[in-house]
Amino acid sequence: MTEGLNNFFSFISTIRVQDIIDILIVAVAIYKIYILIKETRAEQLMKGILAIFFFSIISDILNLYTVSWILKQAWTAGFVLIIVVFQPELRRMLEYIGTSNLFKKSFVDLQYDAAKRNSTEITRAVASLARQKIGALIVFERRTGLNEVIETGTLLNAVISSELLINIFIPNTPLHDGAVIIRESTIKAASCFLPMSENQSISKELGTRHRAALGISEKSDCLSVVVSEETGTISIAEKGELQRYIDVETLEDILMKFYNVNNEESVNDYEE
User: If you compute the radius of gyration of the chain from its CA atoms, what whole number of angstroms results?
Assistant: First the structure.
């Protein structure tokens, strides 16, 4: 045990400040490249390259000479193919790096951009549904997992978009009945069944969607957004309480706060 600790501290003592800077530069570069290629054809190509690299190492360890030779040839041809096949993507990537403030954006800025996009897309969908008086129920997962609820619906794992949310709730479509569950920036599932609230003091004029929104908010720390199909009004349910007649601007503020890094405070702070 003592020898192991001595070796560890001996290793630590050999690390220079330049080594730390070197590692940080490489880590930042890899992260920025990943952000650029995320959800593009290049992302799938990178996965293939990593797979070849992994198998190349394994073949060397196991002394699989033929496999190792083939993989090395694949490496040589692979870089040529990358330049030829992905020339437009590479050109756009280099143009983006040269003309944008890519390396000036902090992690907080990137997180804010994602929060703004998500809240805008959801608000646009809810506003459209409210204008058309199309009933909707959207549940936003927080720390308490909603896997049991997700399993009752249809799994989507889709990127948040206003068009998709609107299409889900169009009457007489396969997924319109039930709730949509959103986890971070992903629409996890649609047509999910929620537990009904057993609160006897709920107004009799409230329908199934509002009672379901209250029910799930009583059993978890989620945030629920409801659109009434009778009146088109927007409501928010959280911690077993319902806020009705939410306007579009307030809804977007609430969603921005929900997606913000510092979203520990209750959205009930918006209640007038």
Answer: 25
The token pair that represents 161 in the structure block: 């978009």
Residue type at 45 in one-letter notation: L
The gap from C-alpha 128 to its chain's centroid, in whole angstroms, comes to 23
Cβ(263)–Cβ(257) below 8 Å: yes
Q: Summarize pLDDT for 190-201 with one digit per residue, the tens.
A: 999 999 988 877
Beta bridge partners of 224: 139, 237
Pairing of strands 234-238, 241-243: antiparallel
Return the half-sphere exposure (C-beta side, CA atoms, 13 A cut-off) of residue 89: 16
In whole angstroms, give the CA distance from residue 41 to residue 266: 40
What long-range pairs does 163-167 form, CB within 8 A, spacing at least 24? 163/125, 165/121, 165/122, 165/125, 165/126, 165/129, 165/136, 165/138, 166/125, 166/128, 166/129, 166/134
CA dist., res. 214 & res. 177, Å (int): 17
Q: What is the pLDDT of residues 85-130, one digit of tens each?
A: 666 666 766 666 665 555 455 556 667 788 889 999 999 999 999 9
Q: How many CB atoms lie within 10 A of CB 232?
A: 15
Torsions phi, psi for 197 (to 5 deg): -70, 140
Task: Provide the whole-model pTM.
Answer: 0.62
Is the pLDDT at 26 greater than 60? The verdict is yes
Residues in CB range of 197: below 8 A, 6 or more apart: 211, 212, 214, 215, 218, 240
Under 8 Å between Cβ of 92 and 102: no
Helix (H) / strand (E) element for 158: namely: strand 154-159
